[in-house]
Amino acid sequence: MSAPVGNEFWKARSSHGRAPIFASADALWFASCEYFDWVEANPLYETKAFGSKDGPQTIRLPKMRAMTNSGLCIFLDISRQAWTEYRARQDFGDVCSRVDEVIRTQKFEGASADLFNANIIARDLGLADRSEQTGANGGPIKSENIQRIELVAAPFPPDHPALKGDQ
């Protein structure tokens, strides 16, 4: 059965749309700092095998966990789209920029210290080496044929017999 004609039940709602998860920039910063703390408190582990007098052994070594914007969004229980919308808001823009810079700096410094795979982090941060395989504006590469002429002896003086020839 459909709603009755003239239905205005929607006007009785206490709010229209979902309330924002973070009411203030300070609340977003606090929650982001909780993510940073969680990343440090929850490293990844690598299992290494080695031989000892008691036979083969394994050990779990903690490895630094890279902070990511995706990981932050999962931790905050928001979508990437919601993060983009917070970033666009005037009252949240500075906090979002600071959070982005903390994440970027942690990845860069971790890769610089060989704690992360530098190639993966460089690509993620847009720092990968690039070489242009085309010419200007994507056109063909232009090459010039340049001939080099090298003087191997001093020129003949004007009265030299070799220049007299058949006169």
Mind telling me the CATH class? Answer: Mainly Alpha
CATH A-level architecture: Orthogonal Bundle
Main sheet attributes: strand count, strand direction, barrel closure: 2 strands, antiparallel
Whole-angstrom Rg:
34 Å
Number of discrete helical segments: 6
Helix content: 25-40%
How many DSSP-defined strands? 2
User: Would you give the CATH topology?
Assistant: Topoisomerase I, Chain A, domain 4
Low-confidence stretches: none
Shape, principal axes of CA atoms: elongated
Task: Characterise this structure.
Helices cover 39% and strands 11% of the residues. With 167 residues, it is α+β, with helices and mostly antiparallel strands. The chain has a single domain, classed as Topoisomerase I, Chain A, domain 4. Strands 1-2 form a two-stranded antiparallel ribbon. The chain is elongated, with a radius of gyration of 34 Å.
Please provide a brief summary of the model:
The protein is of the alpha+beta class.
Q: What keywords describe this structure?
A:
167 residues; alpha+beta; Topoisomerase I, Chain A, domain 4; two-stranded antiparallel sheet; 6 helices; elongated
Topology:
Elements: H1 25-41, E1 44-52, E2 55-63, H2 69-76, H3 80-88, H4 93-112, H5 118-124, H6 161-164
Antiparallel strand pairs: 1-2
